[in-house]
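Question: Now follow the chain.
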Amino acid sequence: MPNGFSLRPDGSFLVANLGQSGGVYVLERDGSLQLLINEIDGLALPATNFANLDREGRIWISVSTTAIDREKSFNKSIADGFIALVDHSGARIVADGIGFTNENKVDPSGHWLYVHETMGRSLLRFPIRANGDLGPRETVTDYGSGVYPDGFEFDSEGGVWCTSVLSNRIIRLDPDGVQQIIIDAGNPDLVERAELAYRTNTFSRSLINEGLHSPLGNCASLCFGGNDLKTVYIGSLHLDKIACFRSPVAGTPPSHWLF
């Protein structure tokens, strides 16, 4: 089950497998699929959320939960997600204890790995040490009621743009930490019911799925594109098309921009 992916210099793609067999695969230009990695530190990779290739050629892998039944970790009191790294030294887990790990990305400076934790409702960052290991986690921001952060992207002014599933919101976090709702295409009744379930640890996949009725179809990712990097493209869990809009702020060039 393909989920997060990254473009490689040779035109192939890294693809995270969100199916129960997990792992990261390489989708070649001829359409063939090759397993890249399915075990780290003696642990068979479970359902794998994201595989991010950075400018240094390192692969950062998000695993949301070690539970086979992923829905059991739709709980604010459970934090069994982790980040793994594949580099010239091999593969290893470099951060754990994350509340449902979602997209990860190295920031434009190259010094920090940013990570969304969906059930923890936070944007985290970790300093990247010279050997690729991560330092202590820092909380960049905590999101409020109705926000279930999934994908994110950096802009050229130091902001971070977040997508929230279920509530179908796009939020910009400015460099001073102020959150601005750019789009809110959610159903207030659904958001209220989901918030109660979140507080009482009864949150479920069925609630997320109800977000499909939004015009954004459960927005889960975004990126900046176009020649000026001012067109925002929105990925979703349920739509068979890509929504987009123009932004007054350009995004930062992605790692594959100069391939």
Notes: Helices lie at 188-199, 205-209. The first helix runs from residue 188 to 199.
